[in-house]
Amino acid sequence: MQVAEKVFIDLIQKHQNIIHKICNVYENDVSNKADLYQEIILQAWKSYHSFKGNAQFSTWLYRVALNTAITFFKQNKKQSFIIHSETIPDIKEDVSATLQEQTQAMYKAIAQLDKIDKALVMLYLDNYSYDEIGEIIGITANYVAVKMIRIKAKLKESAIKYYNHSS
Amino acid sequence: MELDDFKNLLNEKFEKSDVELGSEKIHLSLQEKTNSVLYKLKKGVWFELTSTITAIIIFAVLSFLLSNKGLRIYFGTFALVIVAFIPVFVRFLRMINNQMLYVDAPVKENLTTLIASIKLYMKRYKQFSLLLIPVCISYAFLLGYNTDGHFSQSYIVNQLTNSGLNETVIILLILTLISVLAVAVHYINKWYLNLIYGRYLSELESAIASLNENK
């Protein structure tokens, strides 16, 4: 194994949570999720030489992973809108059943978003500022703010709908 | 629940997955083949390139083996004409390779370049196929006038005239045949490209539309 490859693998291992999160949000089907995971690692490796180190590796990896997930397309396989149990991460054991249900409703609502809105939500949940999100997505911070207002309203509405439906 | 409440609730468990990969598995993943649309596009261009080279070889062989002089000239010339396609395919392959290195660009930029590459490929594919029709037909007519036997213009026209059809009907028949052929090639290309890239392209276009700030 070459030095560059070893460094890359270490970095991926350290930041593979980013890839897991993106795969969980963008793909419901288990095999598609594995394919997307594979694809993100490959794309990251292929463009790793362009990583100059002037940005954080996590930000760079987010860009590669989002670009791969947004353009990832499996033909002849209809996207399922059913959230499988394994895609829903565990929440703290001490949260109430109601909160668990509300959280699951929010996951379902996020799963219904389009690919770009999912990307914005992912970055927002990971505490990126609007400026940083704008840089990763390629839009202005103001537009990120506008989109986030719309997304939050949409998610609130959908989460309530899913919660009422489940309870 | 609102998105901000949800954000506050998340802990590191959100980030964990039951498929935590070790360094060996990641190393093996790097040896796999990519499945991206650019890779498929690249495969498509490689297929076109190999088909072109195969056609050149077949046409060149036919231009030596066929007994009919007209057909020999026809295939020989076409072998030379489609040689011109090779640099175009090579340029496409270079363009795709450059695009493949673009995966760490901002999302909007990456989408814009990707859509442009796919559209350019589709446009050129259609242009090439349609361009060959008038060339083929004109050349067939030209050679038909300058050859003897079953492929000569006079033989075919005689056959048609003897069947009781008048000149106007024969011209109309030929024109209809050419039009039907051109329209068929156009729609077959459209269907083929749409089958491969259509749904994907419209999905990418809707993604970029949602990034348009003037919306």
How does this structure look, described?
The complex is a heterodimer of chains A (167) and B (215). Chain A is an all-alpha fold. Chain A has 2 domains: 1-76, Orthogonal Bundle (Rna Polymerase Sigma Factor, Chain: A); 88-167, Winged helix-like DNA-binding domain superfamily/Winged helix DNA-binding domain (Arc Repressor Mutant, subunit A, Orthogonal Bundle), CATH 1.10.10. In chain A, 69% of the residues lie in helices and 0% in strands. Chain A is built from 7 helices and no strands. Chain A has helices spanning 3-26, 30-46, 57-71, 97-111, 115-125, 130-137, 141-166. In chain A, helix 3 packs antiparallel against helix 5 (115-125) and helix 6 packs across helix 7. The longest helix of chain A has 26 residues, at 141-166. The model of chain A is unreliable at 76-89 (pLDDT under 50). Chain B has 215 residues and is mostly helical. Chain B is built from 8 helices and no strands. The longest helix of chain B is centred in the C-terminal third of the chain and has 43 residues, at 167-209. The mean pLDDT of chain B is 80. Chains A and B meet through helix 1, helix 2, helix 3, helix 4 and helix 5 of A and helix 1, helix 2, helix 6 and helix 8 of B.
